[in-house]
Amino acid sequence: MSVLDQEIASQLPKASFTRRGFVVTALGSGFAAAVLPVGAQTIATDAAGLDAGEVKIPVADGQMPAYRAQPAGKSDLPTVIVIQEVFGVHEHIKDLCRRLAKLGYLAVAPELYARQGDPSKYDSIPDLISNVVSKVPDAQVTGDLDATVAWAAKNHGNADKVAATGFCWGGRQTWLFAEHSAKLKAGVAWYGPLAGKPSEMQPRTVIDGAGQLKAPVLGLYGGKDQGITAEARDQMTTALKSAPTIAADSRIVVFPDAPHGFNADYRPSYVRADAEAGWAQMLAFFKAHGVA
Q1: Structural domain range at position 255
Q2: Which residue, 246, 227, 250, is CA-closest to 238?
Q3: Considering only CA atoms, which of 277, 188, 263, 187 is closest in space to residue 2?
Q4: CB of 178 closer than 8 Å to CB of 213
């Protein structure tokens, strides 16, 4: 499963992107069908003391559904854009938003596949990637993340305190967004692919854009990840060292015994000690860059 989560998309044919309106207009409930059954160790965070639920984010061609959680009745909040893993905005991603909200953040997770399909309906990972994920262009994602940052600033978020964190597919998008957005103060990418073969949908790799980082990024990776090689991590580290000053505080941390998806507490890949250590490092990284 770990290899499929992150690498298979780069091996499949890429469809041309056309503006065709939104296929998904509302978020589903529960976990994505492709991850069932969930493990007994799955973390469940309640919404007590929070304003949490679905919101709509205006984008150029419609309204994008998203999940938002924040401390109830608060404003001027530090903001974290939570970028979905390959399964979309399902219960695990919503729970991560609530965990961040309990710590005082406005956390927003946009459904970035909304134009291409509903990831919650697929019970096969290859089918999900072939029919939905492979059709999502990087340019669309970047634009939708820009719209999410703008929405947060108008809905109780502090526009000067914005970070992003993403997982697997979303980890890669976190790196790319940090290469794009001057409004981002910090990013934390959990096991996001770094290399790969460029395509029409994904015209460059994370490594290619390392010199363009506009915000520092902390990359959290597993030493036993079968899809993201030590060679790719080393290449990214080298690229960061030769990048402009803004990338100087970017770095990759490797948990030697962790597989891909080690923070996904609902899956067998979960490694509690490494997940908790990574979460602590993420929060410290946000705070060090003024997002707290």
Answers
A1: 2-288
A2: 250
A3: 263
A4: yes
With the C-alpha atoms ordered 21, 26, 32, 33, is the resulting torsion angle positive or negative?
negative
Q: What is the pTM of this model?
A: 0.92
Catalytic positions are 168, 225, 260
Give the relative orientation of helices 169-180 and 138-154 as an angle to the nearest 10 degrees: 70
Nearest to 82 by CA among 22, 182, 181, 162: 162
For residue 144, how far is the Cα from the chain centroid?
13
Query: What's the Cα-to-Cα distance from 8 to each of 13, 35, 196, 223, rounded to whole Å?
Result: 10, 16, 10, 20
The total number of structural domains that make up the chain: 1
Ordered per-residue pLDDT tens for the chain, 292 residues = 334 343 433 333 333 344 558 888 899 899 999 999 999 999 999 999 999 999 999 998 899 999 999 999 999 999 999 999 999 999 999 999 999 999 999 999 999 999 999 999 999 999 999 999 999 999 999 999 999 999 999 999 999 999 999 999 999 999 999 999 999 999 999 999 999 999 999 999 999 999 999 999 999 999 999 999 999 999 999 999 887 766 678 999 999 999 999 999 999 999 999 999 999 999 999 999 999 9
Q: What is the CATH number of the domain that holds 221?
A: 3.40.50.1820
CB under 8 Å to 65, separation ≥6 — which residues?
A: 24, 25, 26, 27, 54, 55, 56, 57, 89, 110, 111, 114
Q: What is the 3-state secondary structure (H, E, C) of 207-218?
A: CCCHHHCCCCEE
Residue 13 CB coordination number (10 Å): 10
